Structures are given as structure tokens and as C-alpha cells.
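Give me C-alpha cells for this 308-residue protein.
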Amino acid sequence: MAIFNAGNPVANIVGSPISGVILDHVHWFGVSSWRWLLILEGIPAILGGVLTYFLLPSRPAEATFLTAEEKNWLWAELAREQQQKTSASQVSVRHALVHGRVWHLTAIYFLAAITNFSMVFWMPQFMKSLSSQYSNTTVGVLVMIPYVVALPVMIFVSRNSDRTLERRYHVAIPEIVAAIALFGLAATPTNSAFFYVALWCFVAAGMNSLYAPFWALPNEFLTGFSAAAGIALINSVGNLGSFVGPYTMGAINQQTGSFRGGLVFAGVSLFASAMLMLALRKRTTPETRAVAMTQPSPAVLPMTDIES
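Here you go.
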């Protein structure tokens, strides 16, 4: 999951400088640079969607890059994992949608998404506000740096989470670190680009590190069609934070004329998400308390903002 989600920082590492160059230099055929930004950066997404339809396998049997032995082993492992999670009292998809743990995770994800998308949409504007002399190209380079730092950190956090088989603290601690950095951004009266970029590095590292351990949690107690329904609920409702965060931060900025209030709002939201994660009851025997369906089905992965 961490390697999959690495597409987010990689996209920002590549895309941020390119975006700055387009905004500064591309004014072709009398069309505004911001329109060219949407056109030029939309083309790869369209091509990627077409390629995904033809190249992405839906199940192990369709994976041409696997040998027959690997396909059989993978399918057997998926079936074995589901069997371990299946309990005597089976719960339907409908019950999965009202499961308390599912809604607890939804609240955690919603609050984290508020901060994540506030960072994604408002970090460039924050960097631009540091100096009127910064070109869009310079801002693009400054925005790239936090994601360069976030990339190895998120892989390390996820590796350690797998090694220790611990998820809650591997979500909560990055959230707390990022929240503290946001409070620091709001409270520090300096125009030092170096200092602000350093704090944004902590924010980006924390935000990108939490998602892989987080998405390991639903699959500990959901499987089959109930996993599809539960994860879809967490993802769809939680991603409403992607609207609430940037909109609220923009409204605060407009009312106060400063980023400080918006940064505090984002930090409080993330800190609340961390507290909810720490309050999540630890499952000691997931095999006997699973929310499962009877028919075997491959593990379900969430749709992240890469796909959306």
C-alpha cells in the first residue's frame, strides 16, 4: 500500500516544477497559462485511464506477469486469509455498513482528509505568499521539496508497521507530528523560506505516512463483499473531507487575510483524527470477530486520490 500510495508524492515531485514552468512560460495561441496547465496535465490522466482499463488485471488469474504457480499460490493465500477472518456468526454487507468500527475509521479518515487536501491545495499559495518576488517556477520547486522528504519516510513507516504488525500508533504518531508542524507554521512570525519548507516537510511526511497503515485496519476484520462495502463507505464518506478542508481553509483565509487561522484549523482536525485513532479499540482476535461473507473474494484496496 505504501508503494502504491507513493504515486502521490512522486506525482507532486514531478508535477510541481512542471506546473510552475507552465504557469510562467506557456501562453500559446492566446490561451491563459492556467488553462494550459489543466489541459497539459489532464492529458496524462486520460491516457492513464485508458491504459488502466486494458492493462490492470482484476484478479490473479488475469495477471499475465505471474506464472501459473504464483497465481495458484496467491489465490490460495487470499482464500486462507479470508477463512481465518470468517466467524461463526456471519454478517452481511448491510450490517457491515452500520458496523461501529467502520464508522469509527470513517471519522478518522474524514478528519485526516480535511488536512491532507488543505495541504495539497494551499501549500503552493502559502509558499507564494512568502515573497512577491517568487516566480511560479520557484514556488513549484519549493513545493516539491516536502514530497521528496515524504517519499522515503512513508516507505520506512509502513515497513516498520509490517515488521511490528502494529497499525494504530503508525497512523497516530505521523498525524501528531504533522499537526504540531501545522501549529508551528501558524505560530512562527518569520518569512524564512527555509524554515517554512522544513515544517512543510514534517507535514507532508506525516500525511503521506499514515495512509498505508490506516488501510491495513479495515482488512483486519472485513472480507469479501462486506470488505468492498465497508472500505467504499470509509473512502467515500471520508473523502468528503477533501471538500470541507480546502473550502474551510479558503474561507478562513479570506475572512482573516492570513493563512494562520486555516493552518490551525487543519492542525486541530488532524490532531482530532489522531486522538480517534488512539481511541480505536485494539482487536486482539480478529479471526473470531470478523465481519465476513461466505464466498471467497480477493482482498479489496481503497480508491485513493491517485485514482480519483
